[in-house]
Design brief:
This protein has about 280 residues and is α/β, with parallel strands linked by helices. It has a single domain, classed as Alpha-Beta Barrel (TIM Barrel). About 45% of the residues lie in helices and about 15% in strands. It is built from 10 helices and 8 strands. α4 packs parallel to α5 and α9 crosses α10. The chain is globular. The two termini are about 15 Å apart. The mean pLDDT is about 95. Bound molecules: flavin-adenine dinucleotide. Flavin-adenine dinucleotide binds next to β3, β4, α4, α5 and β6. Keywords: Amino-acid biosynthesis, FAD, Flavoprotein, Methionine biosynthesis, NAD, Oxidoreductase.
Amino acid sequence: MTATSTPALSLEFFPPRDIAAQERLVRAAKQMLAIQPRYVSVTFGAGGSTRAGTADTVRMLQNLGCDAAPHLSCIGATRENLRDILSAYREQGVRRLVALRGDLPSGMGGDAGELRYAADLVAFIRAETGDAFHIEVAAYPEMHPQAASPAADLNHFVAKVNAGADAAITQYFFNADAYFDFVDRAQAKGVSIPIVPGIMPITNHSQLVRFSEMCGAEIPRWIRLRLAEFGDDKASIRAFGVDVVGALCQTLLDNGAPGLHFYTLNHAEAPLAIWRELDLG
Ligand code: FAD
């Protein structure tokens, strides 16, 4: 891999739950537009958000001048539902999607829907809409928690690419070697699309532990120990987080990562502080 000079920056938001949260999101998004993200994305489903919440947030970000991409998951959906959603997004001027399988809410069981995996969703979007959308898919350098093995998970990732994905965003990680190993293994299987590392700022110890347990991202022992030592000292956690995640981003970019995708959690401060730390040469 060789270093690129213009890393593509993208930012992920989630639909706000109330008016106050929406106002905070608008303020955060406006602050972050200063660093000229190539696009922004809006999650769906996570934390109980509805499809309408995603579409409304996408519209709000479009009105701020962003290329905004809704996340679209196929779990629990019928082909007919998905056809309607794709058509509504096209009318709304959406040109980019993050296509996912998604997860059923834990403990609720329920109907998995007509399409089983994200690769089926990508194939469906291509069959229905041709090249109308730029399609991003998820990648897991440390393996998706439900995968049978790293090799099986990689093959399933390759299937999404072969179904028509244009680019990938990874689950977050704190070990750059896991990312480079994944990219090398994907490229050895003929994958040539950009695989953009997903970056989780560190701002809150208990929240990070909770998220990491859910998604299978490993928090290295030394980071866990340092965070535990800071206790309730939020300022020290934030400063440490900017140093650690800033160094990770620099390593990723210096060694050829094509960009960075920030999981902003609707806050501007940490992504901006990290971005300002970077030597973009
Ligand atoms: P898939 O690629 O379908 O993979 C899911 C699992 O199935 C993997 O273990 C894979 O190895 C396995 N698999 C795939 N194909 C096959 C096959 N043919 N046979 C057997 N096994 C197979 N969740 C949300 O709810 N809302 C969001 O907005 C959201 N955004 C996300 C954004 C990013 C960048 C990432 C990395 C994750 C996001 N997630 C979101 C979480 C995601 O929905 C979960 O990780 C979900 O469990 C898997 O989705 P996927 O698209 O990666 O699934």
